[in-house]
Amino acid sequence: MPKISISKSVIKRLPIYLRILDQLLERDIDLISSKQMSKESGFTAEQIRKDLAYFGAFGTRGAGYTTSFLRDKIINIIGLDKTINTVIFGAGHLGTAFTRYNAAKNPYINVAAVFDRDSRLVGKKIDDIRIYPIDEAAEFLEQNRIKVAIIAVPAGDAQGVANLITAHGVVAILNFAPIKLKVPPGVYVHNADLTLELQSIIYYSSEEEERKKRLRKENGKDKSSKLLIE
Q1: Res. 194: pLDDT tops 70
Q2: Considering the chain, what percentage of its residues have pLDDT values greater than 90?
Q3: Which strand ranges, in their side-by-side order, compose the sheet holding 148-151?
Q4: For a disulfide at 90, which of 37, 74, 123, 152, Cβ 3.0-4.6 Å?
Q5: What are phi and psi of 109, to 5 degrees?
Q6: Contacts of 78 (CB under 8 A, 6+ apart)
Q7: Which DSSP helix (H) or strand (E) runs through 126?
Q8: Which band of pLDDT confidence, cut at 50, 70 and 90, is reported for residue 1?
Q9: Measuring CA to CA, which residue among 105, 133, 135 is closest to residue 121?
Q10: In this predicted model, what pLDDT tens digit does every residue of 153-190 receive, in sequence order?
Q11: Domain ranges in the chain?
């Protein structure tokens, strides 16, 4: 399918739809409406229909979508209709956890190798995936035509890794390091700073506490008013 200009927010929702469709197929649900997908995803039915309409007409008015057909179409749109090989830089706790989670939960993307500068880790395996020294990365990337990489190294090492991998064919990076990477034009970077994500949700927990305090205060005033009236 030829690439067309689609907003990033739409692209980010497609994997969510794909996960839902996979789960529905596991439950032997062969037909799904946008209203049902709305309940599963949290997005409005109108938003789902609009997102899918960017890529074609996949459903039947009044009947909905054939689950397997829509799943296959989204796989094709994202580019997961063939095995996608990726590599991870960093065999620490985060890199190891991601490698294991991906193997268990993501049938579309294969972690082909993990790279680390720590000689104590080189040669070992994370499950069945070998850890290589970073100085072998350039050759591995080119020989295996790796286009997607994951950076899970300390901030001080991240830019050097980015320079290395973009010089040898990588055009899409998932970056877990807490640093803004400088990359050549045409290279896409998605930053996933877990510390910032955690800090951002603290706002909502604080807001909820403030809401409860206001309610307690208001309830206290109501009780005081009732006592005065009585």
Answers
A1: yes
A2: 69
A3: 125-126, 129-133, 109-116, 84-89, 148-151, 172-175, 188-191
A4: 152
A5: -125, 130
A6: 14, 15, 18
A7: strand 125-126
A8: very low
A9: 133
A10: 999 999 999 999 999 999 999 999 999 999 999 999 99
A11: 8-78, 84-192, 194-230
CATH architecture type of domain 84-192: 3-Layer(aba) Sandwich (3.40)
Q: How far is CA 128 from each of CA 99, 113, 230, rounded to the nearest angstrom? A: 10, 10, 75
User: Do residues 67 and 24 touch, judged by C-beta distance below 8 A?
Assistant: yes
Tell me how far apart the alpha carbons of residues 225 and 222 are, in angstroms, rounded to a whole number: 5
Q: How do strand 129-133 and strand 109-116 relate by DSSP bridges?
A: parallel
Q: Does domain 8-78 have CATH number 3.40.50.720?
A: no
Which CA distances in Å does 151 have to 95, 96, 197, 218, 226? 8, 12, 17, 50, 61
Tokens of 206: 């604080």
Which tokens belong to 130? 């070998």
Higher pLDDT among residues 178 and 1, named by residue: 178
